[in-house]
Amino acid sequence: MENKVSIQEMIAQRQGKGSKNVIEKFIPAILAVIASISIFTTIGILITLLTETITFFTRVSFSEFFLEKTWNAFGQDPKYGIISLILGTLKVTLIATIFAVPVGLGAALYLSEYASDRVRRIIKPILEILAGIPTIVYGFFALTFVTPMLRTIWPDLGSFNAISPGLVIGIMIVPMIASLSEDAMSAVPQAIREGALGLGSTKLETALKVVFPAALSGILASIVLAISRAIGETMIVSLAAGSSPEFSLDFTNSLQTMTAFIVQVATGDATFGSDIYYSIYAVGFTLFIFTLVMNMISQWITNKFREEY
To answer: What is the mean pLDDT of the chain?
Structure first.
């Protein structure tokens, strides 16, 4: 017996299809707006930083800002030489990188090449928990535990220094390097490993001479992103590095980074419209350029060394 569809049912089905077509037309527009939020946010941040930075440079010359070695924004004769803040930032970042890169890559090699599936499912989430710890906790950990421990070994080390926050920032970025590098190594086809082992390579030789080069783009990108994260760290250096900007290569005494200065001014009594007030935007814009360059380098490395399988 043939199924008969009434006119009312046909009209209802037609109306249902029409409403679905209307929804389908709006969905791409809604998704495009959602996808554009990050772009609009970045543009807004850039406009804010740029306009206030331009105001700062109408009061302080480019030559003083980029060539002067002294940063003394709160003195009677203020000096705005950002080189001291940049040097402090780079000292902390260097220590963090020296610590985090070998530890992170070692963890990634173990998880990718040696750990069983069960061990990997246990260790990797635990490792990534480090990335979820608030940075203020890391800062107090550096100030109240790492620094006193280092001073028992190195009595001349200052209460505020570059080594303690550098090591703790290194601990903080280890999960980023380990997780992203392990993902890149795991993406290398198993057939490549089996081919190397079949030719007589040991497991270590396969990991270092075959898998590691094949995943080099992802590994380098993870390191660059981790360094960018270390450059922009705020709370750890604010608590454990100090607030004395110095043009010096000494890692044992107090220093100040770009982010720490921004925190110091933002939580202080800087008058709206003063040179100190506008200086935080100039420092923030410089920091923005640093992180932008690091992200561009990461993208270039990814495209340059990408392996196609």
So the answer is: 84
Q: At a CB cut-off of 8 Å and minimum separation 6, what does 114 contact?
A: 203
The phi, psi pair for 79, rounded to 5°, reads -125, 135
Angstrom distance (rounded) from CA 110 to CA 106? 6
pTM of the predicted model, to two decimals? 0.83
Q: How many angstroms separate the CA atoms of 94 and 151, rounded?
A: 20
Both structure tokens of 165:
């926050």
Instruction: Please tell me the distance from the alpha carbon of residue 176 to that of residue 179, in angstroms, as a whole number.
Output: 5
Name which of 217, 219, 175, 212 is nearest 196 in CA terms: 212
183-218 pLDDT, tens digit each: 888 888 888 888 888 888 888 888 888 888 888 888
User: Are the C-beta atoms of 236 and 169 separated by less than 8 Å?
Assistant: yes
Identify the H or E element spanning 196. Answer: helix 190-198
Structure tokens at 278: 């506008």
Please give the Cα distance from 76 to 115 (Å, whole number).
60
CA 179 to chain CA centroid, Å, is 14
Query: What is residue 247's DSSP assignment?
Result: S
Q: Write out the two tokens for 299.
A: 């993208």
